[in-house]
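Lecture 7 notes: from sequence to structure.

We start with a single chain of 96 residues. Read the sequence below before looking at the structure.
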Amino acid sequence: MQDRQLNQVDAYDWLGNSLDTLKRQTNNNKTKQEISNKINEVNRLKRNASRYKYLTRMEFTALTYKYLINNQKVEVEKNYKDLDESKNMVASAVLK
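Now the structure, written as tokens:
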């Protein structure tokens, strides 16, 4: 993520584009359907999003984890001192 504030609309656009890329890269129909469902959910969220409300890095990381990480059983490789256990797992999965 660039060193700037990320508004809600841009975040959902980025997630949608990333999911579209993943969908194009897979040949598995079940996976394509799961990704399509996530795209629909992101589009629903985007309709209520604002260009004037900004996400923190942790909020964006949590969204990335929810929509882009398929294997959510991740072994924590690095412990971040300022994060609790659950946030540490999310950060480890996204930054892996």
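The chain has a mean pLDDT of 85. Keep this in mind for problem set 3.
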